[in-house]
């Protein structure tokens, strides 16, 4: 999927919502737990109910891997279902991979070929040759970790060099030599809304994937005010607050209700800040 | 597995070799390619032939994931085979994981429970709460990326702060508040042998996992001279130079020959530098 298509979908759906499928067998409704393919069945019902309100889904790979090969079967089924039924959805593997070149090449093959994801989150710690193998695919994106939403993001990401440039700023700057806005996005957490202004000074045009609203406590309004650009430039994720909104046989309906609430708030912001609506 | 057991095995085998099972269907001998479970069969024969010379095996998860769920079946079979037949082997998942707390917890569950690995490589970029979930398991280790063996390690890992402290040094220092030498090791690449002295100033006692000899060009002698400590303190990995030493039906025998050569060199260094031999 390319950038033009993503922006088009934002206009059509009046939404820049990404729904995180962090699907955990412990947390799905009891009536689904004992059926075969419980995780896939849960995902399918969530997707069918919520896709009108979202432009992207993000699958958190840890939640599938922890079930071993059976989890990978659920992952593959979910990706196939999304691609077959909702081809306009932007599909993100939240995998935070990154390794030496020959290994990153295998991870790229995993998520862009074996599984047909449109994007993968990538950890920048190992530098250029750990990131560029993901960039050799047409119409695929990396989403590089810049400023994450968790408390530990303060440990290293904000360290300043001799010139006062912080580590996440180094990453934003240097990675622009590796890719461009047509194949690179960045993770910037909603838990630091004031930092979006700093980020936008360096990368005014790139899309940002924004985790941290909902269960993690980030504020959507503040994030948008500081982070939006002329193409919207934001994909804001919510996982637990949507998919676990209810635990009965009405879980999908309730998830849709929560997704719609966020979509309506997003529509308001798009009208307020983006002249393309 | 605990530290005492690892040191014991180093003494018994006179080796601190780790063999990397970066097993790629493209590179295994033609006579194995078309059988069921080709990857597992290759691993099994390599393990049976080389385990006398190695104290650890490292499975590079990317090489399994790229085959989808079938690759995870090969991964699970290999781990089960190693644990059942060679319980003294230290078993490393080279996975470079790291995410927000609730997700790292799932990755820890994946590699320490679903799969019975003894250790996992972890990326430090997201800080404390992305690392500590891996530390709640008894007799399991994290191996935190400090100074990696690839060219891109120069991009961010060597950035100096206002006081001249480099990023990898921050990681070595800060992570000592999270764990200790009984549950934490560090990745330091053999391609920067002069840096081991710097590393040892901060962590004299911890074990280091050292990639980068063999195909990546690092020098074992220089690495040992600068990095060894009283418990050896080094686990040196070689992958491609051992497992792909030959491409005929003698591949396992040839792999054993290459592993033995490295073990003998290691025996020499242990006698030279470690008084426990």
* Number of β-strand runs of chain A: 8
Quote the distance from N terminus to C terminus of chain A: 22 Å
Give me the side-by-side strand order of the main sheet of chain A.
1-2-3-4-5-6-7-8
CATH architecture of chain A: Alpha-Beta Barrel
H/E element sequence of chain A = HEHHEHHEHEHEHHEHEHEHH
Question: What is the CATH topology assignment of chain A?
Answer: TIM Barrel
Measured by DSSP, the beta-strand proportion of chain A falls in 15-25%
* Count of the domains of chain A: 1
Biggest sheet of chain A, open or closed, and with what strands and sense? 8 strands, parallel, barrel
Oligomer: homodimer
Structural class of chain A: alpha/beta
Chain pair forming the biggest interface: A-B, 62 and 61 residues
CATH class of chain A: Alpha Beta
Number of helices of chain A: 13
In round numbers, the mean pLDDT of chain A is 96
Q: Could you describe the 3D structure shown?
A:
Two copies of one chain form a homodimer. The first copy, chain A, is α/β, with parallel strands linked by helices and 277 residues long. Chain A has one domain: TIM Barrel. In chain A, 44% of the residues lie in helices and 15% in strands. Chain A is built from 13 helices and eight strands. In chain A, strands 1-2-3-4-5-6-7-8 form an eight-stranded parallel barrel, surrounded by six helices. In chain A, helix 3 packs parallel to helix 5 (69-85) and helix 3 (38-50) crosses helix 13 (251-273). The longest helix of chain A is centred in the C-terminal third of the chain and has 23 residues, at 251-273. The model of chain A has no long low-confidence stretch (mean pLDDT 96). At the A-B interface, helix 4, helix 5, strand 3, helix 6 and helix 7 of A face helix 4, helix 5, strand 3, helix 6 and helix 7 of B.
């Amino acid at each position: 999927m390319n950038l033009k298509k993503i922006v088009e979908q934002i206009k059509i759906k009046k939404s820049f919502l990404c729904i995180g499928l962090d699907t955990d067998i412990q947390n799905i409704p009891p009536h689904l737990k004992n059926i075969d393919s419980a995780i896939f069945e849960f995902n399918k019902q969530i997707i069918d109910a919520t896709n009108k309100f979202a432009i992207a889904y993000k699958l958190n790979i840890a939640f599938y891997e922890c079930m071993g090969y059976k989890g990978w079967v659920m992952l593959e089924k979910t990706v196939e279902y999304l691609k077959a039924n909702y081809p306009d959805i932007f599909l993100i593997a939240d995998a935070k991979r990154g390794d030496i070149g020959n290994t990153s090449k295998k991870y790229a093959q995993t998520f862009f070929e074996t599984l047909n994801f449109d994007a993968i989150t990538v950890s920048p710690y190992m530098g250029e040759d750990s990131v560029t193998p993901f960039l050799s695919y047409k119409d695929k994106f990396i989403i590089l970790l810049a400023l994450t939403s968790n408390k530990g993001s303060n440990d290293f990401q904000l360290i300043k060099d001799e010139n006062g440039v912080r580590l996440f700023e180094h990453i934003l700057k240097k990675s622009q030599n590796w890719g461009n806005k047509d194949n690179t996005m960045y993770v910037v957490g909603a838990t630091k809304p004031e930092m979006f202004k700093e980020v936008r000074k360096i990368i005014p045009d790139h899309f940002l994937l924004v985790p941290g609203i909902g269960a993690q406590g980030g504020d959507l309004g503040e994030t948008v005010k500081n982070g939006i650009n002329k193409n919207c430039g934001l994909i804001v994720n919510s996982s637990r607050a949507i998919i676990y909104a209810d635990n009965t046989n009405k879980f999908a309906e309730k998830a849709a209700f929560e997704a719609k609430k966020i979509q309506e708030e997003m529509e308001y912001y798009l009208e307020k800040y983006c002249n393309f609506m």
